[in-house]
Amino acid sequence: MEKENFRQLIHASGIFIVFVNIFLSPIIAILTCIAIVIIVEAIFRIDENRKVFFFSFILRKCKRKNDERGFVYFFIGIILTLYLFKFNIAIANAAILIFLLGDSASTIFGKRFGKRPLPFNERKTVVGTSTFFIVALISALTQLPLIPALVGAVCGAITEAYSPIDDNIPIPVIAGIAMSLVVYLI
Q1: Which residues contact 2 (CB under 8 A, 6 or more apart)?
Q2: Residue 154: phi, psi to the nearest 5?
Q3: Can you tell me the distance from the alpha carbon of 40 to that of 135, in angstroms, rounded to the nearest whole number?
Q4: What is the three-class DSSP state of 86?
Q5: CB-based contact 126:180 (threshold 8 Å)
Q6: Which residues have C-beta within 8 Å of that of residue 18, sequence separation ≥ 6?
Q7: Greater model confidence, 54 or 31
Q8: Most exposed among 14, 28, 30, 157, judged by the fewest C-beta atoms under 10 Å?
Q9: pLDDT of 73-115, one tens digit each?
Q10: Any residues with CB less than 8 A from the CB of 55 and at least 6 apart, and which?
Q11: Average pLDDT, the chain
């Protein structure tokens, strides 16, 4: 459990991309993500032969079994979201926050307190999905009004509940699409 909590803390730390997106630009945020993927991949390669101070510890602490490159999907989800919603930084940021904070909180609380599995996905719990929704809604409200934030949180929670383990791409993209539809059609 401690390993998963540490992993989710690292996952949530991706929030810095939201600040890059606010204060600089979506293009700088995308380039930052690409640079991080390249650097981390290089560290992975070096780490195969020798330990890299500090990074080897973090890599071992965060790595799941059978998930060598989960961080790549993590950044693909963020990059795709930044690119697709660069026309509206608030939507891009809300979608990323829904993904980062909602997904992390749902994993931590779902594994710790979740007893009752969802009827359609036994790997996910009612507590985890409820936590995702609450944290996602609060996070999205920092960027958008209530209705688009609510729709994004609901769509993000449903996507997370139905997704397999690698939900790093669909959560922010689907939440972003849903919020865009609400913002631009209502």
Answers
A1: none
A2: -65, -50
A3: 28
A4: coil
A5: no
A6: 93, 96, 97
A7: 31
A8: 28
A9: 888 999 999 999 999 999 999 999 999 999 889 988 988 898 8
A10: 43, 47
A11: 86
Q: What is the pTM of this model?
A: 0.86
What does the pLDDT read at residue 44? 78
Strand partners, 125: 117
- CA 139 distance to own-chain centroid: 12
Tokens of 31: 């380039």
| DSSP states along 105-116 | HHHHHHHHH--S
- Over residues 39-56, mean pLDDT: 79
Query: Can you say whether residue 119 is alpha, beta or left, with left for phi > 0 and alpha for psi between -120 and 50 degrees?
Result: alpha
* Residue 90 structure tokens: 């608030």
Q: Does the pLDDT value for residue 5 go beyond 70?
A: no
pLDDT of residue 39: 87
Is the separation of the CB atoms in 125 and 109 below 8 Å? no
Structure tokens at 161: 């509940």
Structural contact between residues 51 and 59, judged by C-beta atoms closer than 8 angstroms? no
H/E stretch holding 122 reads strand 121-125
Q: Contact at 8 Å (CB) between 167 and 107?
A: no
Asked if the model's pLDDT at residue 65 lies above 80, the reply is no
